[in-house]
Backbone:
């Protein structure tokens, strides 16, 4: 189920906050560092990669595949928007 | 032998067993520019393993664990074990098959009958004493043990176990190989479960028993161990990562050799295995991972 045609930064952010709440049973804010402050396992980062690819119909590769792009909801929104515009690494 | 692992471009590692640890160690080697021939029994298993290795390499890249400036090693998969080990002189043969002494000794006997003398033969095991495996090979001096943690490409320390009959050349070669893979070897004496499993596995068993007895939920046991005691993932998520079937096998090895009742797998662990809920690799264990595996 791709949202690639209709996703805006706001809807992507909402979707990601919902995904995180569902997965971690905790509330998140868009700028909270999931790994440093949030205490999530780095293995969870790969779940985020797969989720973003499936949910938004994008492929994350090359230099986009770096943990810093997945540290916060805000950074993930920026990555999705960039890749939906076809500006991959 | 020691010179061979100093690091030539065409170095080749043979890994037997394309399960969780076999594919993880393969990804570690490839990410450090070492080519791998991966051996398992069927083409179907090898095709699945190739997909898993691709996923592991992505994870390694994501976590910055792919060695900079080194081209990814070449992966060959095959079911022809005897051909592979008799045709070439690999830097080492790593056996990473099921944690079952019967299976491991059969594989080691077959490999050692075909491999050239002096090729280090490494059994990757979480609990089986190396000296028990050494009876199955004609040259016990070439055999030693490693215990890579899962995922091998992210965890940089490796437990290394020379058996009573392991030669100094084999140990030096294994340490050199680990150095090339940017791992830190810690050499310990041969014993059931060595150090890490002897400490960790009964603790995980206790954690599962607490859930079984209704003392706390899965989430709460892990949250307490993480939040109060600084455990990186919590014992139950660790069980899912190890593979609950492997954990049970390893606990039986410990229990049978030490008599420690804390190592007798508890009923909830056995039920997970009966239900096929092996953890991360099967999509479900104490947690669900279906989406992560897609």
Residues:
């Amino acid at each position: 189920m791709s949202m690639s045609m209709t996703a805006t930064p706001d809807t992507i952010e909402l979707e990601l906050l919902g995904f995180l709440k569902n997965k971690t049973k905790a509330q998140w804010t868009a700028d909270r560092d999931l790994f440093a402050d949030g205490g999530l396992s780095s293995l969870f980062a790969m779940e985020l990669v797969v989720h973003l690819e499936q949910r938004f119909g994008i492929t994350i590769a090359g230099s986009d595949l770096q943990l810093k792009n997945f540290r916060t909801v805000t950074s993930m929104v920026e990555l999705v928007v960039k890749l939906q515009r076809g500006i991959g690494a | 032998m020691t010179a061979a692992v100093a690091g030539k471009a065409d170095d080749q590692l043979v890994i037997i067993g394309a399960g969780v640890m076999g594919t993880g160690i393969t990804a570690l080697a490839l990410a450090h520019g070492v080519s791998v021939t991966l051996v398992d029994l069927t083409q179907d298993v090898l095709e699945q393993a190739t997909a898993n290795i691709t996923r592991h390499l992505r994870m390694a890249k994501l976590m910055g664990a792919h060695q900079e400036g080194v081209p990814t090693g070449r992966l060959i998969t095959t079911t022809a074990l005897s051909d592979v080990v008799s045709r070439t002189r690999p830097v080492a043969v790593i056996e990473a098959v099921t944690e079952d002494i019967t299976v491991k000794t059969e594989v080691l006997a077959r490999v050692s009958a075909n491999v050239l003398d002096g090729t280090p033969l490494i059994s990757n095991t979480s609990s089986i004493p190396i000296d028990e495996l050494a009876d199955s090979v004609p040259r016990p001096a070439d055999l030693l043990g490693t215990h890579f943690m899962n995922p091998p490409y992210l965890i940089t320390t490796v437990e290394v176990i020379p058996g009573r009959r392991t030669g100094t050349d084999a140990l030096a070669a294994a340490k050199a190989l680990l150095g090339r893979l940017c791992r830190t070897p810690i050499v310990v004496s041969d014993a059931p479960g060595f150090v890490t499993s002897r400490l960790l596995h009964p603790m995980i068993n206790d954690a599962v028993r607490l859930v079984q007895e209704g003392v706390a939920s899965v989430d709460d046991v892990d949250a307490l161990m993480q939040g109060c005691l600084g455990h990186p993932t919590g014992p139950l998520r660790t069980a899912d990562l190890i593979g609950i079937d492997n954990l049970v096998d390893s606990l039986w090895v410990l229990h049978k050799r030490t008599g420690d009742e804390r190592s007798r797998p508890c009923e909830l662990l056995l039920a997970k295995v009966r239900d096929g809920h092996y953890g991360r690799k099967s999509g479900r264990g104490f947690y669900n991972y279906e989406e992560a595996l897609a």
About this structure: The longest strand of chain B covers residues 157-162.
